[in-house]
Design goal:
It contains 16 helices and 18 strands. By secondary structure, it is an alpha/beta fold. The chain folds into two domains: 152 residues, Rossmann fold; 314 residues, no CATH class. Strand 4, helix 4 and strand 5 form a beta-alpha-beta unit. Helix 7 packs across helix 9.
Length: 492
């Protein structure tokens, strides 16, 4: 993954002047030691912040040591002004946590009152409009604080990535795809830059890459990745030319942004003009940490990028697509995996999921497009999908979306890709999510989410929820358990 941030975490202890500064220093050292045992690297700032001048001094040290994510640690009650300004001036995500009392025989000179201090810290953060990450249980012993730091790393990686992200798009959405509407105001609010281009710009750039001397090298890499799944070798030079076109465009247009995601037109005129389906190339970019969302789904691309940062792994974009037939459920699923018939559905897209996440991936042609564009001849311009059943794993399906009135809404649900043959085509898997039918009706439909969902190939809902909370998303839907009624659910 070369398109996500490397997080260097720093810890700064704070101390209120009426408490011994040594209390914060000693407790900070214990946190650093506990973090080291867990394999977490921390820059331990030697300056304990008691005043605003201390905060400025600590900030200089953090900058010199290239720290890009900060732990503000209340070893005692803490100075609410100085500690809040420290977070406000720091150029990166910050977490606030605090020390629990350590021993029952040291509650006179050794009491820190950080439980109380966290209340003042959170109040002051709100007064100054400073966004910070506060764990569910922020006041713990050294080992517990170190575990909070471990959980903060993927959150910090996503927040840092978004702040330095540019989304590049090509083309308007396909006809009747208003579901992929992308109000961009909230992208700017999140710190994300957007560059929208015509597919004509992309077509011109593609034609300029004809006979690019690097094409054979990319073809060889595709052949290596596909192995026995290389069933359409004749299309590889066109796909390689397209991959180089996108690679060069990104480098020429990132304009100082460290990270890039894309949302590109992929049908219907793409096939007749470019002469292939771009899905396999999209999948290769996703496997490197640069997701390319289908159908110019800009918020889908943003969601995929968040998943990439949180997991450090490839993600995909799937349609919440179709139900599982009764006979398939009865023969292949019922009684085997703990999911009921209304808990399962098929997640599908034409062929954009990275090969490393598919069982026996094969390069194929897009069946639906072939039937309409070249029905009476062997596949040519509709070739370029990477297809296969998605490999079984835990998954998290999620999406962050701006509504037409620029309100941020999101959803998250964890589940499993089941080890069940789909008997179908595309990049596709049978996904089980507890109480999916109710979640589908009272979150996805009720909140007007589009049909695309981002999919991370592990259960990471907790971390993604924390990212959304850090970003200020107040409306985050999830799959409620049986008996936990949605506000819109009929109580009778």
């Amino acid at each position: 993954m070369n398109n996500i941030p490397e997080i260097k975490m720093g810890i700064v202890a704070v101390s209120r002047d009426c408490f011994p500064v040594s209390l914060s220093e000693e407790r900070r050292k214990k946190v650093v030691e506990a973090a080291f045992k867990k394999g977490i690297e921390l820059y331990e700032c030697p300056t304990v912040v008691m005043t605003e001048r201390d905060a400025d001094k600590a900030l200089e040290m953090l900058k010199e040591n290239r720290v890009n994510a900060l732990v503000v640690y209340l070893g005692n009650f803490g100075p609410e002004t100085a500690e809040t300004l420290l977070a406000k001036k720091f150029d990166g995500p910050a977490m606030f946590c605090a020390a629990a009392e350590e021993r029952g025989d040291n509650l006179v000179t050794g009491r820190g009152d950080a439980f109380c201090g966290m209340l003042n810290a959170s109040y002051n953060l709100a007064l100054r409009n400073v966004r910070a990450y506060i764990p569910d249980n922020p006041v713990l012993d050294a080992d517990g604080v170190a575990e909070n730091i471990r959980n903060f790393v993927p959150v910090a990686r996503a927040v840092t990535g978004l702040k330095n992200l540019k989304i590049i798009s090509f083309g308007p959405r396909p006809r009747d795809f208003l579901a992929c509407n992308a109000p961009i105001k909230r992208l700017y609010d999140l710190g994300v830059e957007i560059e929208e281009n015509s597919e004509l710009d992309l077509f011109e750039a593609y034609n300029k890459h004809k006979d690019d001397p690097r094409i054979p090298q990319v073809v060889a890499d595709m052949e290596r990745e596909l192995g026995k799944g290389n069933t359409q070798p004749g299309i590889l030079p066109r796909l390689a030319q397209y991959e180089l076109t996108l690679t060069d465009w990104v480098e020429e247009h990132r304009d100082g942004r460290e990270y890039v995601a894309m949302a590109n037109k992929c049908w219907p005129a793409f096939q007749t003009q470019f002469g292939f389906v771009p899905c396999y190339v999209n999948s290769r970019f996703a496997s490197r940490g640069m997701p390319i969302a289908c159908e110019v789904d800009i918020w889908g691309a943003l969601s995929e990028y968040i998943g990439t940062c949180v997991t450090g792994d490839a993600v995909t974009l799937l349609d919440v697509n179709n139900t599982v037939p009764h006979d398939m459920f009865a023969s292949d699923i019922e009684g085997k995996y703990g999911y009921g018939e209304s808990d399962v559905f098929m997640g599908f897209h034409c062929g954009n999921t990275p090969a490393c996440k598919l069982c026996s991936p094969e390069l194929r042609y897009q069946l639906i497009m072939h039937n309409s564009l070249e029905p009476d001849v062997p596949p040519d311009i509709t070739r370029g999908t990477i297809e296969g059943d998605i490999a079984p794993s835990g998954v998290t399906v999620f999406r962050l979306q701006s509504t037409a009135d620029a309100v941020l809404r999101a959803y998250i649900a964890e589940g499993d890709v089941l080890p069940v043959p789909t008997r179908s085509f595309g990049s596709i898997g049978i996904i089980g999510i507890r109480e999916m039918a109710r979640f589908y009706r009272h979150v996805l439909i009720e909140k007007n989410f589009p049909h695309h969902c981002a999919v991370a190939f592990r259960r990471c809902g907790r971390q993604i929820f924390e990212v959304f909370r850090y970003l200020g998303v107040c409306d985050v839907g999830f799959n409620r358990s049986a008996g936990d009624r949605y506000p819109s659910e009929n109580p009778f």
